[in-house]
C-alpha cells in the first residue's frame, strides 16, 4: 500500500512502456479522439502526456507507422492514416456505420465483461443485494400505493416530483448546510443520465473538458460522444496538482471539469477539503464548470468525507450529482442533479427530450424510504459490512506485491500489478475461470494504465471474496511461472 | 368535417398568409433551422414550401428585412441577419448561452402550456386516470414483489429485462405475425426516449430527415437538436403523396423518415395499408430508414388499423416504436423499440450512455399486467370510453364552422379555425379562463399552420369536455365580435 504517484521511475521505461504508448494511441484512434487524417500529438507532447521519455514515445510512433496505422510527414509530425478506419469494411457494413457506433469503446468493453455470468464478480461496483433492505422495501412500496393511488397513471414533471425535490433540498441543508431551491434540483434516472444530460446540454463539439485520470469510464464515452476533447488531470491519494489544473484552465479554457472527488471511482482517493475550496475559486476565475459526481459520499469507513465542492460554490460554477438509490435500491435508479438556474435552464430541456421526466413511481418509492429513520440505520450497517469486505480483500492481497492505496470509502480497490503480470492475459484467464474485474485501461482517458486493475469488494460476501482473490492470485502466479 | 388538403385556396392568400410565412421564417431562425449569416430559401422555394404565391412570400421577406431580421443581398437572395441572435444579450448571459438552450422551442412552448393548472385540460394527450385500472394495478404490484423479491436491488440490462423482451416478441408474433427476436427489442423509458436514442444513434449533424407535417412536436426538437435538417412531408386523411416522398428520397437522400402513421398525432389520420407496403419498398430503394412511431395502435374505434409498416419490412429498414404503458399505466413509462441487429448495434450503446437501462421494477410491473387477460378487457373498455368522449367533443363543435376530419382512433382532434379567429389570441384568453389546448404551429416543422389547433378528448370526462368546448367556443365568438 504505497502512494502510486511515485511508482513509475526510470527503470519502467522499457519495451513494456513503448507498448503502453502504442496502445494509448491505437485506443485514441479507435475512440475518435484522433480522427483519420488528423495530426497526432508531437513526440515530445506524447512523452509528457504518458510520462515517458521521448525515445519511448518515438519508438511507439515508429512501430505504428510501420504497421500503417499512422503516417509520418516530413517536418510536420505524425498523422492518423486516412483510410485506416474503413479498412476491411464492406460497402454494406459501411452503410450502417453510424456515428455513435465506434464511440463507445470503453462502455462496450465494460459491458462485455459485465455481461459474463461469473461466480466471482469483482468487476461491477454494485452492492450485494443481501446487504439491501429488500423485504422491508417491498412492504414500503405497498404504502406508496395507499398514499398515492394514482402514482401509476400520472407523469412526473420534467424536473421530477415536487415533493421529493423539496425534501431533498431540506436534506442538503441538513446534511451539508447547502442552500438549494427545489427548482435547482433535477431528478434523473441514475447518475449515468445526469452525466449524459450535462455533456449534451453544456458543451458542444470542439469544446474541451478536464477529466480525472483515471476516471469513471462511461463518462469518457459520454463526453467523447459529444465531440468534446478530454484533457486528463492525474488524481493521486493527495488529490490533484492544482498548479497543473490552473495551467490547463488558463491555457486550454475547458468548458468543464468532470470530477468524482470523494472515494473516487476507480481509485478510492478523496480530494482534500483545502483543494476543494481552491478548485471552486479556480473554476470561477477561469469560468470552468465543475461537474461534481458524488456517488459514494455516504459510503465512508472512518469519519465522513469533506463537504462537497458544491458547498463552497457561491457563483454557480458547480453542478452536483448525488446518487442515493445505489445503496438503497439500485433498481429504482434515482439520482439528483443540482445546478443553479442559468444552468438548469439549459439542462431541463434536454431531460425533457430524453425521457420527459423520470418515472413517478420510482421517485415516490425512493422518497418514502429515503426520508425514513430506517434508512440511516441501514446505511450505518452497510458501511460496516463494506469495510469488512474491503479488509477481507486487502488481507488476501497483502502478500502479493500488488500495490494500492487503501481507500477510506467507496466500493473499489485500484491495484497496480507487478510488471511481469500482463493485465489482459490475467483478465482473459480470470474470465475463463469465472472471475471478473475491470482492467485499468478502460478507466484511463488516454487508454494507458495497462498495469492497473479495479477490484470491487461490494458484491461478493466475505467467503466468496476471499476465494475469488485467492484464485485470481493463483492465476497471476501461473502466468508469472510461464513467462 | 372536410378533407383538409383542399382547404387553402386562392382566397386565403391574404395579409394573414403573409403573416404565416413571416412567422415560419422567424420560427426557423429561432429554432436554428437557419443560422445567423445563413442563406434562406429563395422566394420561390418559400412560396412552394408554404403553399402560397411568390408575392406573398416576397412580402414576408421584405417585412423581415425592414425589421432587420433578414438581409437582402443583391442578386443573391435573403440571409439571416448575423448579429440577430446575440442582440440584447449581455456578456454574462452570452457566457451561459449553451448550445442546447435555443433548440427546444416547441418543447418548451408545449411545457409552458402543460404546466398551467387548468380545469379544462385539452392540451395533453393523456388518458384520464379514472379510465385506468389503478386499484387493480396496485394489487398487482404487490405480486411483483412476491415474484421478484430482489427487483429493487437489481439493475436491468441495457436492452431491458430478458423475460419481458421474450414475451413482447411473442406478442408481436401473435398480434401482427411479425417475427422479431428478443435481442432485436430495446425497452425504453417512454417513446420519447426511443425517438431521442434514434436521433442520436442513427443520424449525424448535417443529415436530412423526412418528417410529417404536422407532427408530434417533441420529435421536431429531438431531430433539430442533433443538427438534422427536417424536410416536411404533408400528411392528409389519405396518407402521404408518395410521388413527393419518392422525389424527396431521391433528391435529398434523407437518412430517415420519422412517421406516426396510425391515428397520427396531432391529426388522427392513418396511412392506408397499400401506402405502407410501397413506403417500405421506397425505403429499401433509397436506403432511407423508416422510424415508425406507433403509440396509438390499440386505440381504434372501428376495426383495427392496418398492420404496422414494420410488418412489411424484410430488409431491416423499419425501426418500430410501440408504446403500451400510455393506456395502462403512463407512470410506468415503458415503451419498446424494435430494430434489426445492424441498427440495434448502434442504438444500444447510446441507451447505455443515456441511463444504463430502464429501471427493472417498471419493466416487471408492466410485464405482469400487460400479459394478463385483464389487460385486453381494459383496453376494450377504454376504446369505448374514448370513442364516446370523441363524440361529445365533435357534437359540441358541430355547429361552429370549425373543420376537422373525424379520426378512427387516437386521442386528438386536429381542427382548422375560421380565418377570423386568431389562434394565439384564442389560446391566451382560453388559458386565462382555465382552458388549455395546443396551437397547431407547435406541431408544424415549418412553424406555420397558424389556423390549426389540437384538442385532446382523452383527459376530461364527458361533462367537463362538453363544458370546456362550450366555453372555448364562447371565447372564439367573443373574439370574432370584437374584430
TrEMBL record, chains A, B:
Give the HTH gntR-type domain ranges. 15-83
Q: Which InterPro entries match?
A: Aminotransferase_I/II_large, HTH_trans_reg/aminotransferase, PyrdxlP-dep_Trfase, PyrdxlP-dep_Trfase_major, PyrdxlP-dep_Trfase_small, Tscrpt_reg_HTH_GntR, WH-like_DNA-bd_sf, WH_DNA-bd_sf
Classification via SUPFAM superfamilies: PLP-dependent transferases, Winged helix' DNA-binding domain
Q: Which UniProt keywords apply?
A: Aminotransferase, DNA-binding, Pyridoxal phosphate, Transcription, Transcription regulation, Transferase
Q: Which SMART domains match?
A: HTH_GNTR
**GO function term, MF aspect, one:** transaminase activity
* A UniProt-annotated Pfam family: GntR
Which cofactors, by name? pyridoxal 5'-phosphate
Family that this chain belongs to? In the C-terminal section; belongs to the class-I pyridoxal-phosphate-dependent aminotransferase family.
Family annotation (PANTHER family): HTH-TYPE TRANSCRIPTIONAL REGULATORY PROTEIN GABR, TRANSCRIPTIONAL REGULATORY PROTEIN
What is the name of this protein? PLP-dependent aminotransferase family protein
What is the scientific name of the source organism? Paenibacillus xanthanilyticus
Amino acid at each position: 500500500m504505497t502512494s502510486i504517484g511515485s511508482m513509475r521511475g526510470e527503470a519502467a521505461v522499457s519495451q513494456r512502456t513503448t507498448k503502453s504508448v502504442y496502445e494509448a494511441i491505437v485506443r485514441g484512434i479507435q475512440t475518435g479522439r484522433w480522427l483519420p487524417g488528423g495530426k497526432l500529438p508531437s513526440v515530445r507532447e506524447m512523452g509528457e502526456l504518458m510520462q515517458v521519455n521521448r525515445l519511448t514515445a518515438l519508438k511507439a510512433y515508429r512501430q505504428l507507422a510501420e504497421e500503417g496505422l499512422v503516417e509520418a510527414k516530413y517536418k510536420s509530425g505524425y498523422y492518423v492514416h486516412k483510410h485506416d478506419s474503413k479498412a476491411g469494411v464492406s460497402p454494406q457494413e459501411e452503410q450502417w456505420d453510424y456515428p455513435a457506433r465506434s464511440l463507445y469503446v470503453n462502455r462496450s468493453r465494460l459491458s462485455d465483461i459485465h455481461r459474463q455470468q461469473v461466480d466471482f464478480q469483482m468487476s461491477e461496483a454494485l452492492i450485494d443485494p443481501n446487504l439491501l433492505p429488500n423485504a422491508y422495501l417491498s412492504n414500503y412500496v405497498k404504502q406508496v400505493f395507499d398514499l398515492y393511488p394514482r402514482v401509476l397513471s400520472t407523469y412526473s414533471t420534467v424536473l421530477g416530483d415536487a415533493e421529493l425535490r423539496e425534501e431533498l433540498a431540506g436534506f442538503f441543508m441538513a446534511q451539508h448546510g447547502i442552500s438549494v431551491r427545489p427548482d435547482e434540483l433535477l431528478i434523473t434516472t441514475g447518475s449515468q443520465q445526469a452525466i449524459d444530460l450535462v455533456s449534451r446540454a453544456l458543451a458542444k463539439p470542439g469544446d474541451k473538458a478536464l477529466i480525472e485520470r483515471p476516471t469513471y469510464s462511461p463518462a469518457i464515452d459520454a463526453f467523447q460522444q459529444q465531440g468534446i476533447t478530454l484533457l486528463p488531470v492525474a488524481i493521486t491519494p493527495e488529490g490533484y496538482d492544482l498548479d497543473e489544473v490552473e495551467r490547463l484552465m488558463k491555457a486550454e479554457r475547458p468548458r468543464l471539469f468532470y470530477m468524482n472527488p470523494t472515494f473516487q471511482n476507480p481509485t478510492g482517493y478523496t480530494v482534500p477539503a483545502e483543494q476543494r475550496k481552491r478548485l471552486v475559486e479556480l473554476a470561477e476565475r477561469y469560468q470552468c464548470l465543475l461537474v461534481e459526481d458524488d456517488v459514494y459520499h455516504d459510503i465512508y469507513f472512518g469519519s465522513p468525507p469533506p463537504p462537497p465542492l458544491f458547498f463552497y460554490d457561491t457563483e454557480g460554477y458547480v453542478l452536483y450529482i448525488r446518487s442515493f438509490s445505489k445503496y438503497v435500491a439500485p433498481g429504482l435508479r434515482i439520482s439528483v442533479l443540482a445546478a443553479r438556474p442559468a444552468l438548469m435552464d439549459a439542462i431541463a430541456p434536454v431531460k425533457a427530450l430524453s425521457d420527459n421526466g423520470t418515472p413517478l413511481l420510482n421517485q415516490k418509492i425512493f422518497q418514502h424510504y429515503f426520508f425514513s429513520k430506517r434508512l440511516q440505520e441501514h446505511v450505518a450497517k452497510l458501511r460496516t459490512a463494506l469495510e469488512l469486505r474491503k479488509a477481507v480483500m486487502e488481507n488476501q492481497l497483502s502478500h502479493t506485491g500488488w500495490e494500492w492505496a487503501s481507500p477510506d470509502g467507496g466500493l473499489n480497490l485500484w491495484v497496480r500489478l507487478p510488471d511481469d503480470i500482463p493485465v489482459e492475459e490475467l483478465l482473459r484467464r480470470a474470465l475463463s475461470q469465472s472471475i471478473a474485474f475491470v482492467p485499468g485501461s478502460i478507466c484511463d482517458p488516454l487508454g494507458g494504465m495497462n498495469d492497473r486493475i479495479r477490484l470491487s469488494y461490494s458484491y461478493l460476501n466475505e467467503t466468496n471474496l476471499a476465494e475469488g482473490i485467492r484464485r485470481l492470485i493463483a492465476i497471476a502466479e501461473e502466468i508469472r511461472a510461464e513467462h
